[in-house]
Amino acid sequence: QSVLTQPPSISAAPGQTITISCSGSSSNIENNFVSWYQQLPGTSPKVLIYDDKKRPSGIPDRFSGSKSGTSATLGIAGLQTGDEADYYCGTWDGSQSAWVFGGGTKLTVL
Amino acid sequence: EVQLVESGGGLVKPGGSLRLSCAGSGFTFSSYNMNWVRQAPGKGLEWVSMISYSSSYTYYADSGRGRFTISRDNARNSLYLQMDRLRVEDTAVYYCARGGLEHWGQGTLVTVSS
């Protein structure tokens, strides 16, 4: 059971906009920065969003992040077939002194 | 360019030991905390351990505390994970990740099986 809660799967058509939620608590999301990771099949995770809403260089602005209280959200606009991947949220948990992740959301673009 | 390259994975019997290594380059290794994160086959990400930049502090997930030991050699730009008393459920790809998990290596597979 993951500390952070994400929907296990989501599917949408190319060109659509989706959001992926990540729910936590005051010991993690509410008081620490959230990152979002994309893991394409057979590859290592890559940061899409850090510090709640910042994008590393090279990440298109189709990807966005937001946070409110104990929840964070990843948005992906203009879905492409290449966006099919597993997406994870992650943050530091101060009460556990540990990095914690959501269980992952499998995005299918059909 | 930041690079993290893990090595040392392989097949080991339950109860055995393995030492993983991670070589960092393209950044000032001694300035960053470093982490190990693992992913069991078909499963999600699980943080394993973190070591502070100067080795003053170490943190472990409950799953590895008492069996795993994280260490680093800043002179060699290297991170290590000594894994003892391995269990079948430790089977996973082990990634090293820098600082706030902003950069990840390609991973090394550890298989614990008789």
Structural account:
The complex is a heterodimer of chains A (110) and B (114). The termini of chain A are far apart. By secondary structure, chain A is mainly β. Helices cover 0% and strands 45% of the residues of chain A. In chain A, the strands form 2 sheets. In chain A, strands 1, 3, 4, 7, 8 and 9 form a 6-stranded mixed beta sheet that branches. In chain A, strands 2-6-5 form a 3-stranded antiparallel beta sheet, with no helix packed on it. Chain A has strands spanning 9-12, 18-23, 34-39, 46-49, 63-68, 71-76, 85-93, 98-101, 105-109. Chain B is mainly beta and 114 residues long. Helices cover 0% and strands 51% of the residues of chain B. Chain B has no helices and 11 strands. Chain B has strands at residues 3-7, 10-12, 18-25, 34-39, 45-51, 58-60, 68-73, 78-83, 92-98, 103-104, 108-112. In chain B, strands 2, 4, 5, 6, 9, 10 and 11 form a 7-stranded mixed beta sheet that branches. In chain B, β9 (92-98) and β10 form a beta hairpin. Chain B is globular, with a radius of gyration of 13 Å. The termini of chain B are far apart. The mean pLDDT of chain B is 97. The chains are: A mainly beta (110), B mainly beta (114). The A-B interface holds A 2, 33, 35, 37, 44-47, 50, 56, 86, 88, 90, 92, 97-104 and B 35, 37, 44-47, 50, 59, 61, 95, 100-107.
Radius of gyration of chain B (Å): 13 Å
Rg estimate of chain A, integer Å: 13 Å
- On the 0 to 100 scale, the average pLDDT of chain A is 97
Structural class of chain B: mainly beta
Shape estimate of chain B: globular
Instruction: Please tally the helical runs of chain A, counting DSSP H or I stretches of 4 or more residues.
Output: 0
Q: Quick one: how many beta strands of chain B?
A: 11
* Approximate strand percentage of chain A: over 45%
Overall 3D shape of chain A? globular
What is the secondary structure topology, with strand pairs?
The complex is a heterodimer of chains A (110) and B (114).
Chain A (H helix, E strand, L loop, with lengths): L8 E4 L5 E6 L10 E6 L6 E4 L13 E6 L2 E6 L8 E9 L4 E4 L3 E5 L1
Chain B lengths: L2 E5 L2 E3 L5 E8 L8 E6 L5 E7 L6 E3 L7 E6 L4 E6 L8 E7 L4 E2 L3 E5 L2
Parallel strand pairs in B: 2-11
Antiparallel strand pairs in B: 1-3, 3-8, 4-5, 4-9, 5-6, 7-8, 9-10, 9-11
